[in-house]
Amino acid sequence: MKQKNASVWKAVRFLLGYVLRNRALAVICTVCVVLNSLCGIAAPYLLRPIINDYIPAGAAGKLVRAVILLGGIYLLGVLSAWVSARLMIRISQKTTRDIRNDLFARIQTLPVSSLDGKTHGDFMSCFTGDIETINDAVNTALNNILSGIITFVGVVTMMLLISPLLCLISACFLAAMYSLVRFSGSRSRFYFQRQQKQLGALNGYIQEIISGLKVVKVTGHEAQAVEGFQSHNRGLTESANAAQTFAGILMPALGGTASINTAVSLCAGAVFVILGWIDLGSLVAYSQYLSQAGRPVATISNQWNLILAATAGTERIMEVLSQEPEPVSGSVTLSEGSWRTDSGSVACRGAVEFRNVSFSYGETEVLHDISFTAEPGQKIALVGSTGAGKTTILSLLTRFYEPCGGQILLDGIPAGDIRLADLRSCFGAVLQDTHLFTDTVRENIRFGDPEADDAAVVRAAELASADFFLSHLPEGYDSMLSGDGGNLSAGQRQLIAIARGIIAGRPVLLLDEATASVDTWTEHQIEQGMDRLMEGRTVLIIAHRLSTVRNADCILVLEQGRILERGTHQELLDRKGRYYDLYTGAVELS
Amino acid sequence: MYRKLIPYLKPYWGRIAGSSLCSVLEAVFELTIPLLLAAMLDRGIGTGNIGLTLRLGGLMLALALLVFSCGVGSVFLATRAGTGFSADLRAAQFRHIQRFSFRNLEQFGSASLITRLTGDVSAVQTAVFQCVKQVVRASSMVLVAAVMSVRLSPRLSSMYLILIPGLALFLIALVLSVRSCYRDLQEATDGLNLVTEENLTAIRTVKVFGREARQQSLFEQVSGRVYAAADRAYGRSAMGAPGVTVFTYAAMLTLLGWGGFLVIRGEATVGVLAGFITYISQVFNQMFSLSNAILILNRSMVSAQRINAVLDTEPDMEDGMETELRSGSVAFREVSFSYGGSMPVLRQVSFQAESGQTIGIVGGTGSAKSTLVQLIPRLYDVTDGAVEVDGRDVRRYRMDVLRRNVAIVLQDSTLFSGTIRENLQWGAPGASDEDLAEACRQAGAWEFVSRFPEGLDTVLGQGGVNLSGGQRQRLCIARALAGKPKVLILDDAASAVDTATEAEIRRSLRQDLPGVTKIIISQRIRSVRDADQILVLDRGAIADRGTHESLYRSSEIYRQMCRSQKEEAE
Known about the structure:
heterodimer; A: 590 residues; Rossmann fold; four-stranded antiparallel β-sheet; 13% strand; B: alpha/beta; 23 helices
């Protein structure tokens, strides 16, 4: 419990740090909240003499003056309420915007390894749900809690002044209201968790069926799919009933308790009046204050729930923000095509060397003692089953991951010594899953090189055999790609990605299943174009289809993280080993 | 927008009415308590009668308990109506989606359909029920409070004639201006989510090309847009509460000034004035929650729209009547097809496959091989010309009959969570284990299925994660064969299967299923070289056709393909 409180306060401090970036606004806002609460307490005070004294006494002058004064206080109250609410919105929006931007910036610098362990949903929920809860809390909670406390303290003081005995009775009910809120809160949390679980199950089912809907249709499985859906749907309805009932009952329950409180307290008060313990005027005033006292209890506890929700979200965001970013600095930098090291400068040519590199992901060893060199002008191919470690080799080279043992050298310089941005600027890549951005085709290709002009874009597309279909699109290169290029076929998307890799014109080109969805004929054409382009450059290529890698200078056959065989296509065939089996189709790549 | 969703509320009218009645009673009882209080103060204390005071107090307590139970009852009934309504709405959508054609599916995209089934439904549920509750409660409170205040003093009540329309105008203007702001906010938020999501998926690409700065500035731009839109939307809504307070206070001051003089002149009493004050704030506060309810409804308008879009989409295929399909002969008669754009995807395709024949289809990326075969089980309908199975236009068959007889194995080998048996039975509900084992044998899958300790009962994770790509593909073929189809279409469905096993599958298809028409798309020439007829597709038209030998002699494109995978073809 104590630990939980500590983490709550840590989250609150974190949020306050952002809120207080708008110190001036926050100060004005606080002043307004206090003003507004004071006006709220003062107004009934002025109201009473009007009704009790001035009107019955027929004092018209006093009446007019008091009404004007009251009007002034009302005006002040309304103005301060509006100003504080308006400012609070600005503060909370600025707060969430700043947190959002910082969060995004941090995620950009995180090593890929810390992104891989999580689903995108985990990060997305930081940007959507968690930020929203923070917004709710900052926007209303600070305001309401402050005014709630002032009102509550003021009102209770007034009530105590009138009659401590009546206060005792009312306090019992206020305590009851408080525990009601706590009880209902904890019950509804329990049921909400159950509802979330059911919802998760339903969403999972929907996800699976809807994404596989084409198969549902071709196998005529529609009726059974509806049946399965309904059983999850009914489960959710049951648990949602319980959860929403408990959450919804809170407000009427509070209202009811407040009414009961009024009835009992005032009835007792009336008896006190008859017995002569207090006077009638005090009882009327007491009844007014009593009706005001219940609200802060409900508001504060409601707001507290909001704050708790926000701290949960904040903690998740803090966790992301506290993750270690990629180490970006390095003693070796790149300028004008050569590496500047302590001992002089080396030309940047793109020679890659792996020396006894090993890598483990958690407990499992993914790569074991990998050594090879790739000189400029060479094409090195990696083949092997899924999970053999091919993609990992490329990930180590681009330093998405750091090797656990051995050394990776670029132009003879240890990769770890090179400034990260400079290191990566040596690589052009076409990666396994083709990701395009919601933008025009032209901008997507220019993602590889922002300085490229239109002619260069077309040239790259021609080399990638993409020009043919791109120029036939209704708006050519200005066509918008939507939702990860969803309006193109997988093969066409790959061709655009290849053009993006080509235009970057980097010394080392990494192709990871870059033509998996492209037919062999088009692939052949791309290959010819690329061969010309890649003269003097280093190419590392991964392909499932062996015809793709046939003309590589060296083929590395990987199995379970080890290099099993290496050599040219012909050498490997002559060996009649693993490669030969793969090539003749005796074994299947998985 | 909501009108179309009203029928889904119908089964719950009883509960909604009950819940509304409870909340009206709650309002009435709540407003009666001040009357009893006044009576207690005037008569109980005035006469010093403790018995009467306690009786009135007891009555108040009883009313308070009634307020409590009516409130709880209202929530209880409304919740049950709400969850039922949303379950029905979800089910209606889900059922409707099951009827969608492929074209319909692509138009929405699966991610968007999932949101419509989940998030959007709960948004609508919350909005509708909040709205019903607040509207009922607020309007009954306003009505009761207005009646009570008119009874207290018709003369003072006349100020309602100015104040209520004034407040109404203010609230309507507010709702209208905030509504468009929320729309902007929604759009800005969608943009933010898009940029974030894309950046997360493509993080490796961003990092390799060193474009972090571009992404960051893009994000800050959309983030700033969200900030501006939210600041405006919420900022305008924040005028609501102070605005209503202004009206309340104006009424109070009028009451005190005007009413005060009336009392001084002896035309009203202090008691009337005090009572009036209670009701005035009730009336105005409830009008405010009414406008809030409208805003809530408005904010979920987008969700309602999106749900309607699903429900309004008519599956763009009509079912036929014919239930008899005897042979698996397939014919294309001058078939043209386009996905809706002006560019035809298939142009004037004609060919004939006799029952039991094997047709191979090869061609480059984007040559529309997949599109062509998907016309046979009517995953799409032709734009022009006709596709025939067993001598009849496919559009004349009942859909379930056609698809049971024409089995297609799609490119992405999708399996579902559950056992292997359950997955195979998708194609053949109630098929016996022997039948399933036979289908597995023909698809070359029995070899590994029988090696699993659990056999057909082996549970596959979601998407069949514990199988290799080749194994998944073989199970998908087995699933298609389990239904004993008359036409079998394999759309590059064995690309990850090793060549020896693939040859074995082809052999067993030829020998064990002589009556089944087989249409095979493949990237590998080897997979189709034994076909009775090979179609070479180029940009949506049949460029050449013939057997392997004749094509190798006559077709330049075919020769090029063979050469690009030379050793494999030998």
